[in-house]
Amino acid sequence: MKEFVLIFRMDIITEEAQPTAEQMHGYMQQWTEWISFIKDKGQLVDGGNHFSREGRVLKRGNEVIEGPYVADRNSVAGYILIRAIDVDDATRIAEKCPILLGENTSVEIREVGQPG
Predict the structure, then answer these.
(1) Are 99 and 7 in contact (CB under 8 A)?
(2) Fewer CB within a 10 Å sphere, N or C end of the chain?
């Protein structure tokens, strides 16, 4: 099996896009079920986490931008590492990710350790 990283993107800056406490409770329950499903299949690799909403971007010439990198109101919110046969298998796992139930969200699937 190969290792893949699932990178979770969502709108972390627009106030009205943030879930309520009740919604967050439901999302976390769905998240836990999804992660348990992957783990029970032996496909969850150690590693992965959520990121804070704060950050800094360093660009050429030592230009510093306060805050995480955001494009189209989207920023990386976290990641997990999984094992899968190939990118299609990894995509099938990612398709069940509850983050995709939200507005302006995505999961990027990238194989780990493969150059170019």
Answers:
(1) no
(2) C
